[in-house]
């Protein structure tokens, strides 16, 4: 395998942005000043307007203005098995969005973590011969290790077995109870253990198989606590109509509207048969249903150790979330159950839920339950984290499904990263090193005035910015790639190597890792070229990644300072 020499990572290449607008705020929050004013009568909670949802029941004092942090979340991954490329996919996308928001100057709180309670976890622990808590520690650690290998820049890692989280769940449950939305009843139905959910018979395949997990559902009867979801049908319909950006992409909004219109049924929020969970307050014989537990992780993650561990403090530390990024499999929980639960507890709704598609293998969703997964750590070891991250962002249209193909993986890395972006960086830095002692010869702000190349770059920067804002991640990568293409064409046209031979040191530099045109100043030193993107030779395929890439990965790993805190 040949290896080209570049000095920067794809992140640097993506930093061609000028600081500007922040995302719009859809749901505003007006607060009451005192707990005494809390009224747990649902009809009195909300005033819906065309633009915003005013929650009038909480004493939360989050102003939700321009200065509010950009809070984004990945799902809290279920620790029934170690992470795979599907889990990594959502996290990689969230990471790109977090980095973009930071470039805009926003304070970002990027939350990820693990969902650790429930029947599936307890069974997985038994199967591994370990206790549930040992099992959770080990799988949760595997997620953290993978995020580190993928260079994920999360700020918080929440585990739902964290005692602070448990306190938040119990407080939330008590609020919903006080609002009159929890009742006890018998329930009999078909249950998918993998979804941890009762299923509607009409959703199921032959032999009552779950369409996601392709395993038969089992008939169960239980005496459970129920959440009165049906009470929120009308409000949810109004929210979805008045705030069409709440669920994205738009075709997912249609899906959600369809579910709501077809009639919402109350759902059970406790399990009598599951010990591994948070006990229901005032009924230790039942544990809280995993979803009524895990979703609260998005709020409890906001707590920091110095503050009091209650719902109010957590909410005032950044809630509502700006964006929940999830796979389409858990859209119903995030776009129907969660908003209703929040309304019941008098807490503001998240601003946006984006349900992306699946990475598939042979047309089937890659997943832990089916076991048809792709090992992200293997890919990282072979081509480096940046290349893996770039491939999945660029080659899967965000929102739709995408099938993984090794040929496409190799071709994309070679064409986009090694041949285009990497080559441009290598040529530019190499020329500067050879001819200018790695020092910028002119001010880049004036160097390309009136130049078509500069216009192209600025146009692509703006395009990339807009695509990022709209969560069109593949198109954002495309815009960056266009800058690389234009840069190579420009260098070919200008042939600076011959200008240098003629003694002209004033050629216009194009490649830079600054956030805007003109960021490089006369006399500024640029970095030493060093290998980052390996060109994969087809005959050697993925097995023969260069030693340079492996070394570069190791070096990067060493340099990394732990940033995330466990909430
Ligand atoms: N194949 C996939 N493509 C895209 N995202 C995925 C994929 N698999 C998992 N995810 C991400 O993980 C979330 C589901 O997390 P979970 O821990 O339940 O993983 P899972 O592998 O889907 O588990 P299972 O197969 O047991 O249902 C999805 O909503 C999505 O964010």
From TrEMBL:
Catalyses: tRNA(Met) + L-methionine + ATP = L-methionyl-tRNA(Met) + AMP + diphosphate
Q: Which CDD domains match?
A: Anticodon_Ia_Met (cd07957), MetRS_core (cd00814)
A single BP term in Gene Ontology: methionyl-tRNA aminoacylation
Q: This protein's superkingdom? A: Eukaryota
Residue ranges of the Methionyl/Leucyl tRNA synthetase domain?
A: 203-429
The segment annotated Disordered runs over 548-567
Residue ranges of every copy of the Aminoacyl-tRNA synthetase class Ia domain listed in the record: 62-121
Q: Which Pfam families match?
A: Anticodon_3, tRNA-synt_1, tRNA-synt_1g
Alphabetized, the UniProt keywords read: Aminoacyl-tRNA synthetase, ATP-binding, Ligase, Nucleotide-binding, Protein biosynthesis
This entry carries the following GO cellular component terms, namely: chloroplast stroma; mitochondrion
NCBIfam families per UniProt: metG (TIGR00398)
Q: Which family does it belong to?
A: Belongs to the class-I aminoacyl-tRNA synthetase family.
Q: What is this protein called?
A: methionine--tRNA ligase
What is the scientific name of the source organism?
Answer: Buddleja alternifolia
Give the organism's phylogenetic lineage.
Answer: Eukaryota, Viridiplantae, Streptophyta, Embryophyta, Tracheophyta
């Amino acid at each position: 395998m040949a290896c080209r020499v570049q000095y920067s990572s794809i992140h640097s290449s993506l930093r061609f942005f000028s600081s500007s607008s922040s995302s719009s705020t859809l749901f505003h929050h007006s607060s009451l000043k005192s707990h005494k004013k809390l009224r747990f009568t649902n009809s009195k909670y909300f005033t819906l307007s065309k633009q915003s949802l005013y929650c009038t029941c909480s004493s939360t004092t989050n102003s939700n203005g321009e200065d509010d942090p950009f809070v984004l979340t990945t799902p809290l991954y279920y620790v029934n098995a170690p992470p795979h490329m599907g889990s990594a996919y959502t996290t990689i996308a969230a990471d790109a969005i977090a980095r973009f928001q930071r470039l805009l100057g926003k304070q970002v709180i990027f939350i990820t973590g693990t969902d650790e309670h429930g029947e599936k976890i307890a069974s997985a622990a038994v199967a591994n011969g370990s206790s549930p808590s040992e099992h959770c520690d080990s799988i949760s650690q595997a997620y953290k290790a993978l995020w580190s290998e993928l260079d994920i820049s999360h700020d918080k890692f929440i585990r739902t077995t964290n005692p602070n989280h448990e306190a938040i769940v119990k407080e939330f449950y008590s609020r919903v109870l006080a609002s009159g939305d929890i009742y006890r009843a018998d329930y009999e139905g078909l249950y998918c253990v993998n979804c941890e959910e009762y299923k509607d018979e009409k959703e199921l395949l032959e032999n009552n198989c779950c369409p996601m997990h392709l395993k038969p559902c089992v008939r169960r009867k239980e005496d459970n606590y129920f959440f009165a979801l049906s009470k929120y049908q009308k409000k949810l319909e109004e929210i979805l109509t008045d705030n069409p950006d709440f669920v994205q992409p738009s075709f997912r909004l249609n899906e959600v509207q369809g579910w709501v219109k077809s009639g919402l049924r109350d759902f059970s929020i406790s399990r009598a048969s599951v010990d591994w969970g948070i006990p229901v307050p005032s009924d230790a014989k039942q544990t809280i249903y995993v979803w009524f537990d895990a979703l609260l992780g998005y709020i409890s993650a906001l707590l920091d150790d110095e503050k009091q561990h209650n719902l109010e403090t957590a909410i005032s530390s950044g809630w509502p979330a700006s964006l929940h990024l999830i796979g389409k499999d858990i859209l119903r929980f995030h776009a129907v159950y969660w908003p209703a639960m929040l309304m019941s507890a008098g807490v503001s709704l998240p601003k946006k839920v984006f349900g992306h598609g699946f990475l598939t293998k042979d047309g089937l969703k890659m997943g832990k339950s089916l076991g048809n997964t792709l090992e992200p750590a293997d890919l990282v070891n072979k081509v480096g984290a940046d290349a893996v991250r770039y491939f999945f962002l660029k080659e899967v249209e965000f929102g739709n499904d995408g099938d993984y193909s090794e040929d496409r993986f190799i071709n994309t890395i070679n064409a986009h990263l090694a041949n285009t972006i990497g080559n441009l960086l290598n040529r530019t830095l190499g020329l500067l090193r050879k001819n200018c002692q790695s020092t910028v010869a002119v001010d880049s702000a004036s160097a390309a005035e009136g130049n078509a190349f500069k216009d192209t770059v600025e146009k692509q920067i703006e395009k990339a910015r807009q695509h990022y804002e709209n969560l069109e991640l593949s198109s954002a990568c495309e815009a960056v790639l266009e800058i690389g293409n234009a840069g190579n064409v420009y260098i070919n046209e200008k042939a600076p190597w011959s200008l240098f031979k003629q003694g002209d040191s004033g050629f216009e530099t194009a490649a830079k890792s600054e956030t805007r045109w003109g960021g490089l100043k006369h006399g500024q030193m640029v970095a030493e070229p060093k290998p980052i993107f390996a060109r994969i030779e087809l005959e050697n395929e993925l097995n023969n990644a260069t030693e340079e890439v492996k070394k570069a990965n190791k070096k990067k790993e060493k340099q990394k300072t732990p940033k995330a805190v466990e909430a």
